[in-house]
Amino acid sequence: MPSILIIEDEPDMAAGLKDNFEFEGYDVIIAHDGENGLAMALSHTPDFILLDIMLPKKSGLDVCRELRMRKSKIPIIMLTAKGQEIDKVLGLELGADDYITKPFSVRELLARVKAVLRRVPDSDETTSESVTMGRLTLNFQYYEATEGEEPVEMTHREFELLKYFYEHSGKTISRDELLNQVWGYESYPTSRTVDNHILNLRKKLEVNPAHPRHLLTVHGVGYKYIN
């Protein structure tokens, strides 16, 4: 039974989410502020975190940042309010895997969570060998990235994108294909979401992100990875 940590300070929202996830078979734990949420994430190590941005004591952005600094690879979906465009982008840069804007449908949220959990690989299914992509050395089984001897912070989604590009090296991949294969049919991202992730990946992968040599844009179509 997958476990989910809901970090949400609105009691009615938290209770409603808890009921819906428990109905779907999840083991649910709840924190009502950022400090307790961070502590519970570290002590319980849930399979998934649903994280509100606006929280007392410690913001959701700070919780996300600290978890990634502590090398946590737990998938995170951030809850944002309308008009928080900057917070959405910053959340992705800090290591969130996705975001959903309030108000949202519970059905959409459940679909996004299920899609992410399905893409968390079993150790038996993923090679333990490290591969080199641009400046990075990557281990897709253990979700580890390094540049030389230094670890590089990467989100779960960024690993999944690079893994897909690596497995399809030299092939032009459309945004729709990336959305379907990496985010999943039951998720609801946009092509802009893909573009934002590509921009972040180039900062880590390329020597000169403004003039990429590995993760290339194919105008009017999508992207191509060349080793």
Explain the layout of strands and helices.
Blueprint: E1 3-7, H1 11-23, E2 27-31, H2 34-44, E3 48-52, H3 60-69, E4 76-81, H4 85-94, E5 98-102, H5 106-118, E6 131-133, E7 136-139, E8 144-147, E9 150-151, H6 156-167, E10 172-174, H7 175-183, H8 191-205, E11 215-218, E12 222-225
Parallel strand pairs: 1-2, 1-3, 3-4, 4-5
Antiparallel strand pairs: 6-7, 7-8, 8-9, 10-12, 11-12
What name goes with the CATH superfamily of the largest domain?
A: Response regulator
Which range best describes the helical content: under 10%, 10-25%, 25-40%, 40-55%, 55-70% or over 70%?
40-55%
Q: Sheet with the most strands?
A: 5 strands, parallel
What's the shape? Answer: globular
Distance between the termini: 39 Å
Strand percent estimate: 15-25%
Q: Note the total helix count.
A: 8
Work out the number of β strands. 12
| CATH architectural group of the largest domain | 3-Layer(aba) Sandwich
Q: Which residues sit in consecutive blocks of at least 5 with pLDDT less than 50?
A: 122-127
